[in-house]
Design goal:
The chain has 15 helices and 12 strands. It is α/β, with parallel strands linked by helices. The chain binds D-gluconic acid (GCO) and manganese (II) ion (2 copies).
């Protein structure tokens, strides 16, 4: 259904139709995402910072549900305790006034030069101690704002000079840090869970935990693995040349998808952080299909930013676009589920040779003996085409809007 009215604010027209975000969609942004000032390694900022309270107001008007932050997105690193409290009070009021929540918080352990060779993994115990102190204070701030998920993105936990640090020690230090902070959160009774976010490179040449899969393995070695999950990001897995929806499937299947960072990214490029679904529609469709069909109920967080060409209006169009594209793809998933021809092919794929199911599953000696006696006509089995070309083209036509 398309409504014939538009949402107007900040002098601009936004689209208020069936795809417009609603609170129950659980869409969130980071203060640092819409607040991105368009600086890059080659050029100065193209936009002025937007005050956090205005970000809260405008995102809420666009239908977003949550706003996430690093400690220093809200409170400058050199704020006095009095200054900090005032900022936090104003921010909380804006959250209340505009019916917004803070589902996730995180710490900036990458901007200040003290972290130039890592926080958790630094060779210097003094830096590691400061890092822990900063994170504990930041966790306190997150708890005060009601965050139930705490994200760790080790932006500087990596290396350029790979002989300067023992990578095994780096992993052990990271583990010690996460174990320490799990105990801190339990001690404070904050009821938070941790979500670890992998990235292969940028800003470091190589990061110690380059993919979501690396973190899934690492989590099992922690003192309290139940408290810790992952926060996969589209761009990060694409930078590593991986299939994002397969990585997310593994996280979901193991009960570890605590949070997700949605954006877009071309393979083989720098860290682009594009608007969700703007580059690779098919991957974005597969991801939305997975999240919806497997009933992921956590926050859907857009960790992206507007092109550097934009002024503030462009920023709000960017935010609107992320959420609309998610909802449009969700509608496409419903069309896919209702399409008789597509569903017919899928039913045929799923219905082959059901009599062989009994040979699979749990092992028993009897089953193994029976299976070893069967003669398989493998050439005959390999003859029949699988019909995936037709299925894939139907998906393409559905995506392109002619089905
Ligand atoms: C990046 C990361 C960050 C993290 C953020 C939350 O590439 O810069 O994705 O945006 O998600 O620091 O921990
Ligand atoms: Mn990122
Ligand atoms: Mn991210």
């Amino acid at each position: 259904m398309v409504y014939d009215f538009h949402l107007k604010f900040e002098g601009e027209i936004f689209m208020a139709d069936a795809y417009m975000a609603k609170k129950e969609d659980k869409f969130s942004f980071g203060l640092w995402t819409v607040g991105n000032i368009g600086r890059d390694p080659f050029g100065d900022p193209t936009r002025k910072p937007i005050p956090p309270t205005r970000i809260v107001k405008n995102l809420s008007r666009l239908g977003a549900w949550g706003i996430n932050l690093h400690d220093n997105d809200l409170v400058p690193i050199d704020a006095t305790p009095k200054g900090r409290n005032q900022i936090v009070r104003d921010f909380k009021k804006a959250l209340e006034d505009h019916d917004m929540v803070v589902p996730m918080a995180t710490t900036n352990t990458f901007t200040h030069p003290v972290f130039r060779d890592g926080g958790f993994t630094s060779n210097d115990p003094k830096v590691r101690a400061y890092g822990l102190q900063k994170i504990m204070r930041s966790i306190d701030l997150g708890a005060e704002l009601g965050a139930k998920i705490y994200v760790f993105w080790g932006g500087r936990e990596g290396a350029e000079c790979n002989v300067a640090k023992d990578p095994v020690e780096a992993i052990k230090r990271y583990r010690d840090g996460i174990n320490y902070l799990c105990r801190y959160v339990r001690d404070q009774k904050y009821g938070m869970k941790f979500a670890l976010e992998a990235k292969p490179n940028e800003p470091r040449a190589d990061m110690y935990f380059p993919t979501t899969g690396h973190y899934l393995a690492f989590i099992e070695t922690l003192d309290d693995p139940k408290m810790v999950g992952v926060n996969p990001e589209v761009a990060h897995e694409h930078m590593a040349g991986l299939n994002f929806h397969h990585g997310v499937a593994q996280a979901l299947e193991s009960g570890k998808l605590f949070h997700i960072d949605l954006n877009d990214q071309r393979f083989g490029r720098y860290d682009q952080d594009f608007r969700f679904g703007s580059e690779d529609y098919k991957s974005a469709f597969l991801l939305v299909k997975l999240l919806e069909e497997k009933k992921y109920r956590g926050p859907k967080h857009f960790d992206a930013h507007a092109f550097r060409t934009e002024d503030e209006k462009g920023v709000w169009h960017f935010a609107e676009g992320c959420m609309r594209t998610y909802n449009i793809l969700k509608e496409k998933v419903r069309c896919f589920q209702k399409d008789p021809e597509i569903q017919g092919i899928l039913a045929e794929i799923a219905g082959q040779n059901p009599e062989f199911e009994k040979h699979l599953g749990k092992y028993s000696r009897k089953k193994a003996q029976a299976l070893k006696r069967i003669r398989f006509d493998i050439d005959g089995m390999a003859k029949k085409g699988l019909g995936f070309e037709r299925l894939d083209q139907l998906l393409t036509e559905l995506m392109l809007g002619i089905r």
